[in-house]
Design a protein that fits this description.
Blueprint lengths: L1 H4 L6 E4 L3 H4 L8 E4 L5 H14 L7 E4 L14 H28 L3 E5 L11 H20 L5 E7 L6 H5 L13 H14 L5 E2 L1 H12 L2
Parallel strand pairs: 1-2, 3-4, 4-5, 5-6
Helix pairs in contact: 3-4, 4-5
The structure holds NADP nicotinamide-adenine-dinucleotide phosphate.
Length: 217
Amino acid sequence: MAKRMAVDHQLVLTGRRQAHECAGDLPPAAHYIKADLSDPVLSARHLAAKFFSLELGRLDLLIINAGIGFHTSAGREDVVMVRQTLDVNLVSSIMIVRQFAPILEASRGKVVFIGSVAHRGAANMPTYAASKAGLSGLARSLKSEWKGRIGVQIIHPGPTRTTMHAKAGYDPGIMRKLFFSPEAMADEIVQCIRDDRARTQISIRARLGRLILRRRP
Ligand SMILES: NC(=O)c1ccc[n+]([C@@H]2O[C@H](COP(=O)([O-])OP(=O)(O)OC[C@H]3O[C@@H](n4cnc5c(N)ncnc54)[C@H](OP(=O)(O)O)[C@@H]3O)[C@@H](O)[C@H]2O)c1
């Protein structure tokens, strides 16, 4: 996504790795801020302080993409996993938008949340699903509160062949072949953002549905 957005945006990227560890992955001219979102309050403040020290003057698009999950049944999740999932996926999103709302408004900008089709519920990933449902509620609330001032969009990707499943302790087996490639998903998400599309579920089912509709005379 960053590589695609770099074509027409000045980027400020963030991740929990040290800058030198991801230097080769960053588009040229992108700024990088290291921040670990498992501490939502401190990392949001740190991100804002570092961003404003760059003196870029405006913020047109804030994309909140970082996310984690753990594959385990509801009764077996340990509280560290639960808290970490909620902190990274949901609480840090709330804290970050709070820090950046004034400059987004001054720039007539937009915030984009990367949710998940799991926001409707996902067996064996209950906290992840809850965090994404929470993100959905957050986006809907801000959309109504910020109407006419700051754009709000939430995009719900379907399963994609990233490293997320291995990190979550989940092996999708042969099903992985049906997942979106990261490149195809990045194309879809960037297009959704550019079109400011209201309905933004990106799943194989939704893609097939669109193709079928397009073929109807
Ligand atoms: N892959 C899917 O099937 C799928 C489906 C629906 C929605 N999504 C959503 O898409 C988004 C991107 O996920 P992905 O599939 O691209 O997985 P990914 O490759 O694991 O990317 C997640 C990113 O979040 C970062 N992150 C995790 N914990 C963090 C922390 N404490 N502080 C800062 N950054 C942290 C990761 O950093 P590290 O590289 O250091 O781990 C990684 O860069 C997530 O919000 C995910 O929920 C994914």
